[in-house]
Please model this.
Amino acid sequence: MRSSDKSLKRTKRMWRILFIIPALVLFTMTVYYPLINSIQYSFTDWDMSSATYNIVGLDNYKHIFDNELILSGMKNTAVFTIYTTFIGNALALGLALILDSRIRAKKFLRAAFYIPCLLSPIVVSAIFSDILQYNGLLNELFRSLNLDIFVNDWFGNEVTAMPMLIVLNAWQWMGYGSVIYLAGLQTIPKEYYEAAAIDGSGKIKSFFKITFPLLMPSVTIMTFMSITGGLKLFDIPYVLTNGGPNSATETMGTVIYTLAFKHQRFGLATAVSVLFFVVIAAISITQVSLTKRKEVQL
Amino acid sequence: MTKKKNTLYRIILQIIIWIVAILFLFPVLYQVIASFKDRSEINNPLSFPASFYMGNYIEAFIEGGFFTLLKNSALVAFFTLLIVVLCGALAAYVIARSSGRFYKIIYFYFLSGIMIPFQAGMIPLYKLINSIGLTDSIWALILIQAGTAIPMSILIYSGFIRAIPQQLEEAAMIDGCSTVKAFFKIVFPLLKPATISTIIINIIPIWNDFLTPLIFISSQDERTLPIGMYTFMGERTADMGPIFAFSVLVCIIPVTLFLFMQKYFYKGIAAGAVKG
Model:
């Protein structure tokens, strides 16, 4: 009896291990193993093609801070992330509040705002590189309205290229964010608003005293997604502006890609990617724990 | 008095939100309209096409090699989702049903993957894929996409499994069902909502993925739609008609899928967000 119990336990454990192994192997192989390799290579002058490499200590990390391309990538990524996080959150929340109120054709409106996030970055690039080019739709519209002062080469101009990317991002992800906020709004019991109204509190006060605090879980997740999404930005600047004009739209993503696959500076590129990982991990952990503290339990 | 003011305010809000919604859809509609313009019309962005010119679509289908790209994209999406669903559900089942520190550590090991950006390991991954001979094969895309999507699927599945009473499987196992049989016959069918969430959350990013194939695929036969379109664009820089026809074709599948399954999209996104 005892021994069969034992063997039953053993087969059960064996199955458990077998159930976990595929996920564990695949995940480790594609995520952790490369990450650890990156950390190793970041201390070497590895160039991918030759079999041997030398350990160069912190040299790659020192070079990060005297490389113009990397520094502009860092700056642009920070600017993009800060703007898209604040603007994206505010717009998505505003839209969710409107879609949650008593208006007509809610379903159509929600779908209309959601559709842009389904589009591939390459499609978005094709559409907007055409609409915003010098002889494109927007400028032609300005010209036909005699508003020639607004005519601009939107992505060819160093000053407007990055703001346009921020606008594109807001356009693409506003509907997606509003779906997350709508789900959050639906978890707030209606009685709270009724009680507040009886106590004589106005709509604006109710929003700041009830809606916003109870929406903190959604704010947490939206902020997390905006920050990590912003930091990882790659596709649209790579296709649409190729980092230009004059590095105005280089991001950490495009910089790592360029250093590795165009300049073959793998040591430096891995050092940047390790730094990139550390920054993303640190920001994610701080941000989640900070906004989590502000969440109220129902 | 205030009631009248309220209705007026609501009508104004309604009109504004309608205008904004149409402005939002406008870029999408613009590419559809432009894709039917012929060469003489395309340079006038404010005009409508005189007739439905199909030449752009023919060019996209034939010279763009659309069907090969579509086949590759479909294969990548199918196998990636299959692997993510199976591996994710199996691992999450064990994690959710076991106590003890070992499984807790495994769980956090998986979850920490959500924070790791693809770029962090991208370069050594290139070497790894090279050394196992998968460069230039859609299987490189499938394995990488599946591996990076596993943490999120484990998060969704394990939350869901914890909410299912354990007695069901225990009863089945007492009746002589093996662990594997109990999982596939009893647990997995109950996980349908989690499976749908996992598929919905992943299908669009997989379909639209650009960076992975950019790095790992070079030959024409193994390309997926986004890279195919990128190449197509590179070959004809100023000729926007065929490019827009191509981009309409790239959009059709995700947008149709969304229009038919809207409910699941909203639920899936919300489920992923709440659990996260």
Chain B is about 75% helix and 0% strand. The two ends of chain B are 46 Å apart (CA to CA).
